[in-house]
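Dock magnesium ion; give full complex structure.
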Amino acid sequence: MPAAPATAPAVEAVDLVRRHRQGDTVVAALRGVSLTVAPGELVAVVGPSGSGKSTLLHLLAGVDLPDAGSVVVAGVAVHLLSEDARAALRRRAIGLVFQGCNLVPLLTALENVALPLLLDGTPRSQAQARARAALAAVGLAARAQHLPDRLSGGEAQRAAVARALVAAPPLVLADEPTGSLDAASADGVLALLRGAAAGGAAVLLVTHDPRAAAYADRIVRLADGLVVAATGEAGACAALAS
Ligand SMILES: Nc1ncnc2c1ncn2[C@@H]1O[C@H](COP(=O)(O)OP(=O)(O)O)[C@@H](O)[C@H]1O
Ligand SMILES: [Mg+2]
């Protein structure tokens, strides 16, 4: 198969529908959402609580499956893969920051950040060196040996971002990565995500943070499971200038 052209989207979602059953009621979390992110692009998904942002991110990452529609990551139809194949694709191609962060509680910050590299077969000494550098990049060099419950909320969040970026994945999906950060730490994390995009990654950022949206090339607004507005680069720049 020929290599995909450089302009092919890193992720392409078409008409995603996802319903959650809760007892007798069915919540339509997504009602037909389409979205693409190109390599080098940082797209912010914004919208009120309950609008479907996390559901969308979970479908793009293949941790959840759509009831209808398709998700293609790096040319692979994620929604058609087995659970194991989806996990393998995540290890190879996706850096994930979940809402609420999900560090492994029994591993130090350094071990948490090294984990994606170790799972992908990187030798331990090399994985640790890269994890140290990734922790230093988020200002946590002095916290490498701390367990997650010995990190502040903001430090844990930054460690989760370091873990998502450590393997330089082509696709980065981050759910409210600045949610528990003060302004200076939030700017640091957003600059790191911007840097990942500058290095060629496609970055999708789910956020409430108006500051975060200002770092984006494009803003996609969700409401009640639908895309209600999308701004192009001009809109994002205008938002930055105002
Ligand atoms: N696992 C689930 N079971 C039942 N309902 C869910 C589940 N996950 C999300 N929902 C519902 O789907 C809607 C969208 O949720 P979510 O994607 O988390 O929104 P957001 O991230 O924008 O706050 C909400 O109404 C939420 O209550
Ligand atoms: Mg959410």
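Observed: The chain has one domain: 11-241.
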